[in-house]
Design goal:
The chain is mostly helical and about 110 residues long. It has one domain. It contains five helices and no strands. Helix 1 runs antiparallel to helix 2, helix 2 crosses helix 3 and helix 2 crosses helix 5. The two termini are about 15 Å apart. The mean pLDDT is about 95.
């Protein structure tokens, strides 16, 4: 969380990105990097790798700062739901990052 989530969250907020987009951007950064055990449990190594690759591609293409980001995210959401993939571990760390950010005066 301290290596990925907080720096991304703070960078996005400092750039003027609204809180909702900053939290989604933080989630996508974590999904690209984290060995999310919920994804691993639900989809095996292949499911985890597919989600990591899709999140990394989303981020490389501009992430939440690029126009049309919601549509790209909804496409990803669709195939993840179809495969029963859920990045629950990453989502938990977004919540923890938001808490720490707030506690530190963010």
């Amino acid at each position: 969380m301290y290596r990925i989530a907080l720096p991304v969250l703070r960078r996005l907020l400092a750039a003027g990105v609204d809180e909702d987009r900053a939290l989604v951007g933080t989630l996508m950064a974590l999904m690209a990097e984290l060995t999310d055990t919920n994804l691993l449990w639900r989809g095996g190594a292949a499911g985890l790798a597919d989600v990591q690759a899709a999140a990394a591609a989303f981020n490389a293409a501009g992430g939440v700062c690029r126009p049309g980001w919601r549509a790209r995210l909804m496409d990803m959401h669709g195939w993840m739901v179809a495969r029963n993939l859920s990045p629950g571990g990453s989502a938990d760390l977004v919540a923890a990052a938001w808490l720490v950010h707030g506690l530190e005066g963010g």
